[in-house]
């Protein structure tokens, strides 16, 4: 759980804004039990989400449209970053990943909005989110 949550913090650059909603693919680190629509989240994840003020949401069972979005994002990183450069060590991969995320990945077309880059979509969303404006990840 510690590594899972430190990955959340590490995925955001210092001073950047927190997302309002984070989707989880029903993994045990997030969802301990599910009975129909009743979801029992991991208490550590709930405390973490409360601290950073975001809404953790699991994707619905058999909801291909939700899960597909998650899977495509993972595939995009795997196919467009991890298969490309060589990495000397963990520090090297982190430096290259930050440059890639802030450059090529941010400048790609946003899958949700025609004619808008991912960078532009995030910039447009940030001012409308009161949580994002008040809770920077450090």
Shape: globular
Number of strands: 4
Discrete helix count: 7
Task: Report the portion of residues in β strands.
Answer: 5-15%
Low-confidence stretches: 129-138
Can you list the strand order of the major beta sheet? Answer: 1-4
The residue-averaged pLDDT reads 80
Radius of gyration, CA atoms, in whole angstroms: 16 Å
Run of helices and strands: HEEEHEHHHHH
Characterize the main sheet.
Answer: 2 strands, parallel
Q: What separation lies between the terminal Cα atoms?
A: 19 Å
- Helix content class: 40-55%
General description of the model:
The strands form 2 sheets. The protein has a two-stranded parallel ribbon with strand order 1-4. Strands 2-3 form a two-stranded antiparallel sheet. It is built from 7 helices and 4 strands; from the N terminus they run αβββαβααααα. It has about 140 residues and is of the alpha+beta class. Mean pLDDT is about 80; it is low at about 130-138.
């Amino acid at each position: 759980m510690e590594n899972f949550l430190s990955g959340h913090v590490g995925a955001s650059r210092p001073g950047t804004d927190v997302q309002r909603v984070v989707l989880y693919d029903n993994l045990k680190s997030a969802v301990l039990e599910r009975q129909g629509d009743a979801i029992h989240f991991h208490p550590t994840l709930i405390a973490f989400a409360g601290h950073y003020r975001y809404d953790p949401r699991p994707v619905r069972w058999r909801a291909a449209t939700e899960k597909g979005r998650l899977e495509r994002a993972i595939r995009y990183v795997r196919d467009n970053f991890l298969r490309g450069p060589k990495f000397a060590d963990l520090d090297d991969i982190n430096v290259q990943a930050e440059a890639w995320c802030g450059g090529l990945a941010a400048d790609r077309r946003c899958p949700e909005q025609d004619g808008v880059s991912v960078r532009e979509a995030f910039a447009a969303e940030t001012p409308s989110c009161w949580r994002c404006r008040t809770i920077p990840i450090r």
